Model the fold of this input.
Amino acid sequence: MQSQELRPRELDVFSARVRDARLLAGLRSSEAADHLGITRVRYSRLETSSSTVSIDENLLRQLGTLYGFESRFFTVAPSANAVSNGLRFRAQRSMTKFDEEAIEVWSRVASELLEVVSLHIKPIPLLVPTFEVTPGPEQSADEVRRLLGIDVDEPVVHVIRAIERAGVPVLCAPFDVRGAAKHDAVSLWTGVQFDRPLVLLRQTNSWERIRMSAAHELGHLVLHRWHVPENAEDEAFAFGSAFLMPARGFRMDWPGRVTLANLMPLKRKWGVSLAALIERAYRLGLVGAELRSGLYKQLSARRNSETGKTWRVEEPGSTEREPEAPWLVGKMIETAYGPEGSASALSDEIGYWPPKFVSPLLQGQRKPKRRLQSLGLAERAEPTSNVTPIFGR
Done:
């Protein structure tokens, strides 16, 4: 009697996991089907099930190889408590649906990371107000400054640090989808009750842009938790501008004769771009439409003598500051796992997301130097030997 050839085992995989892995790999579904040697209709079924789909172990191994994931990643249910309740973007108009979906996955990785780490530490107090009926961007920004102890006439010294003091974790994510950087930041509410705020920023060399992006996303968290109007992006920009350049102090500083040269001291004081100064002044009625247009034309016409880029792309003073970096999540992780915590162990704990996708979220953090005693968190864990540290040695 001839022995029959053993058929490959059938295993259940979660469709959402297959989709997430593909998006992080930067592939469209049609490209994935071609790489796997299956029809596009069959591949579509792998991603569109409401829960799980059965596939043979050979195809599972192919998926893992193609996307760079362990097979077990696909067989573990996504964290239901880490699903974002609506993402708020600061993006370019050219951002596609594919780009949005990939950013959604990065948000999910970050959400699951924070969910797991939060299990090991005491809750961080949240000082960010949210309005069911917003009093408007200007008043909301003034209220947030008051809650954070920032004087109404003073600049925000470190925007990201101020946001983190309010209990909002900030992470830097590699948002360059398929090689194109099409957006700057995203914010969301996560957790069982969607009560945990989170901000993700694209790492950039522009200190002006990262400060405005962080303030912009803070505006989304404050203004748009319960309702997202059609002009949500305009409101978030108005909030960010008011948060960084409060009206009373800004008016006192505005020069009588407006030129790009005499706006440079204001750029340095308030920590924003020349373009942001011009737009804020226009909205406060300090300059008219004609002068505003003329100043923008000057920004577009002038060039950096060293790089050849226009001032609209790279303003003067762009190298005078280091771009801000977050620190809160790094300290949370050090508190939970110790300074010698294992990156691979952390990756396993959050559902087998590969370290190559977890590490970029942490590399943008300032390396922790002390414990979070000031925030009342738990004592940090004892160092673990013979592991690769999360933040490097």
User: Anything to note?
Assistant: The two ends are 61 Å apart (CA to CA). The beta strands are 10-14, 52-56, 88-91, 170-173, 183-190, 196-202. Residues 10-78 form a domain with the 434 Repressor (Amino-terminal Domain) fold (CATH 1.10.260.40).
